[in-house]
Design goal:
The chain has 452 residues and is mainly α. The protein is built from 15 helices and no strands. The chain folds into 2 domains: 203 residues, MFS general substrate transporter like domains (Growth Hormone, Chain: A); 200 residues, MFS general substrate transporter like domains (Growth Hormone, Chain: A, Up-down Bundle). The protein is globular. The relative contact order is 0.13. This is MFS transporter. It is a multi-pass membrane protein.
C-alpha cells in the first residue's frame, strides 16, 4: 500500500510530471526521427537510383559511432557538468540540427552532410540520456525514487511503442502536401524538432530558479579544456585495460565466451534485418519496381513501423513469460534455441514474398529476442566475478556497437554485388549454424562448466 501511495503521490509533483511527459514526448520524436531517416533514404534511393541498403548501412555506422567513441567518457563528463544545463543544451542543439536535414537533402542534395548532422544528433542524445536519469533525484524525494523511475520507464516504453507504430504512418501521409510540405518524410523531422523544443521549454520552466545566465571566464574554459583532455586520456587507458582484462576473462571462462559468441551472432542478425530487410519491406512489389531494381513487399515505411510495433509486443509477452517459466529450461539452451530460431526467421524472411508472413515473423522474432537477452545477462551475472562484472558488461556493450557498425557497413557494401535477399539468406544460415556450433561447444565443455 505504501508503494501504491507513493506512486500516485507523483501526480501531485508538477515539476516531475512536466519532466516525465516532456521526455516521453521527446522519445516519441526520437523514434519518429528514425522512421523519417529510413523514409528519406528510401526516397533518395528511388529518386537518384541509389542502393537503399548502402544508405542504411552508413546510417548504422553513424548511429553507433557516438557510443563507440564517447560512450566510456560521457558519464564522467556529465558528472563534472551541471546536468540541468546539459539536458537543455543537448535538446536545444538537437532541435536545431534536426531542422537542417531536409534542407541538406532537398536544397543541397548531399546525403553525407545528413550523416554528419545525424552523428551530432546521436552524440547529443548520448549525453542527454546520460544526464536524464541523474536529474530525477532532484525532482522527487528519495522515498519516491522507485515509483518515479517506474513511472518514467513505463511512459517511456509507451512513447517508444507509439513512435515506432505511428512513426511510419506519419512520414508516409499524403496529408502533408496539402499544407505545403512537399515530401511527407520531411514532416517527421519537423515534428521531431517540435518535440525537442517542447522538452527545452519544459526543462527551462522546471529549472527556472536554478539557472542563471553566466558567461564562462577564459580561465575556466582553459581549465575545462585541460580537464577534458585528461578525462579522455584517463578513460581511454581504462577502456584499453578493460578490453584486455575482458578478453582474458572471455577466453578463460567457457560460459562467458559462450555468451560473447552468441552476442556477435545476434548482432549479425540485427545488422542483417536493419540493412537488408528494411529496404525489402519498403521497396515496391514486382509489377512496379524500377528496371534493374530489386522487388520488395511494397509496405513502405509505415510497414516498417507496424512490424516494429508487432515485434515489440512479442518482446513484452516473452519477457513476462520467461520470467515466470524460464527456470525450467537451462539458460544456454534458451540462448541456442532462440539464436537458431532467429536465424530461421532471417532465412524465411529472405524467401517469402507474401506481405502478411513478415508480421508473423516479426512477432516470433520479438518472442525469441527477450529470452535471449535475459539469459545472456543472467549467465554473465552468475559466472563473472563481481569485482570485474561491470567491466565485462561495459566491454560487451562497446563491442556490441562496434560489431553492429562493422557488420552493417560490410553488408551494405556487399549489396553492390549480391541481391539483398541472397545476403539475408546467408546471414540467416550463418546465425543458425552459429547456434549449432554453440550447442556442440556446450556439450564439449559440459563436464567442466557449471550447470546452467
Amino acid at each position: 500500500m505504501e508503494q501504491k501511495g507513493e506512486f500516485f503521490n507523483l501526480f501531485k509533483i508538477k515539476s516531475f510530471l512536466i519532466f516525465a511527459f516532456s521526455q516521453a514526448f521527446s522519445l516519441f520524436g526520437d523514434k519518429l526521427d528514425y522512421m523519417a531517416l529510413l523514409a528519406m533514404i528510401a526516397f533518395l534511393s528511388q529518386r537518384y537510383n541509389w542502393e537503399a541498403s548502402k544508405g542504411i548501412s552508413y546510417l548504422s555506422v553513424v548511429i553507433t559511432l557516438p557510443t563507440i567513441l564517447f560512450g566510456n567518457f560521457a558519464g564522467v563528463l556529465v558528472d563534472r557538468w551541471d546536468k540541468r544545463r546539459v539536458l537543455i543544451f543537448c535538446d536545444l542543439m538537437r532541435a536545431c540540427l534536426v531542422l537542417t536535414i531536409p534542407l541538406f537533402v532537398l536544397e543541397i542534395g548531399n546525403l553525407f552532410l545528413v550523416y554528419f548532422v545525424a552523428f551530432f544528433i546521436f552524440l547529443f542524445g548520448l549525453f542527454f540520456n546520460t544526464a536524464r536519469l541523474a536529474v530525477i533525484p532532484t525532482l522527487v524525494a528519495p522515498r519516491r525514487l522507485l515509483a518515479a523511475n517506474s513511472f518514467i520507464s513505463f511512459i517511456g516504453r509507451v512513447a517508444t511503442f507509439l513512435g515506432v507504430l505511428f512513426g511510419g504512418v506519419i512520414v508516409d501521409l499524403t496529408f502533408w502536401r496539402r499544407i505545403g510540405i512537399r515530401y511527407s518524410w520531411s514532416a517527421g523531422f519537423y515534428i521531431d524538432s517540435l518535440t525537442y523544443w517542447v522538452s527545452v521549454f519544459s526543462l527551462l520552466y522546471i529549472f527556472r530558479h536554478h539557472l542563471r545566465l553566466r558567461l564562462p571566464k577564459k580561465e575556466n574554459i582553459l581549465t575545462q579544456g585541460k580537464d577534458l583532455v585528461e578525462i579522455v586520456g584517463t578513460n581511454l587507458k581504462k577502456l584499453l585495460i578493460n578490453l584486455r582484462e575482458g578478453y582474458s576473462l572471455i577466453f578463460s571462462l567457457p560460459p562467458v565466451s559462450f555468451t560473447f559468441a552468441s552476442t556477435i551472432a545476434l548482432v549479425l542478425f540485427g545488422a542483417g534485418i536493419f540493412v537488408l530487410y528494411i529496404p525489402i519491406i519498403q521497396n515496391l512489389p514486382p509489377p512496379s519496381v524500377r528496371i534493374g531494381g530489386e522487388a520488395g513487399l511494397g509496405l513502405g515505411t509505415r510497414g516498417v513501423g507496424f512490424l516494429g510495433a508487432i515485434g515489440s509486443i512479442g518482446l513484452i509477452l516473452s519477457s513476462l513469460s520467461y520470467g515466470i517459466l524460464g527456470h525450467k529450461i537451462g539458460k544456454r539452451i534458451i540462448v541456442i534455441l532462440s539464436l537458431f530460431s532467429l536465424g530461421m526467421i532471417a532465412i524465411l524472411s529472405s524467401l517469402t514474398h507474401s506481405p502478411l508472413l513478415p508480421f508473423i515473423l516479426a512477432f516470433l522474432g520479438g518472442l525469441f529476442l527477450s529470452p535471449l537477452f535475459i539469459a545472456q545477462d543472467t549467465i554473465l551475472q552468475e559466472n563473472v566475478p563481481k569485482e570485474v562484472r561491470g567491466r565485462i558488461f561495459s566491454t560487451r556493450e562497446w563491442l556490441l556497437h562496434l560489431f553492429f557498425g562493422i557488420f552493417a557497413f560490410v553488408l551494405g557494401q556487399l549489396t553492390t554485388f549480391f541481391r539483398k535477399r541472397d545476403l539475408l539468406l546467408v546471414v540467416g544460415i550463418i546465425v543458425s549454424l552459429s547456434a549449432l556450433l554453440l550447442l556442440f561447444l556446450k556439450r564439449e565443455n559440459g563436464r567442466h562448466s557449471p550447470s546452467l
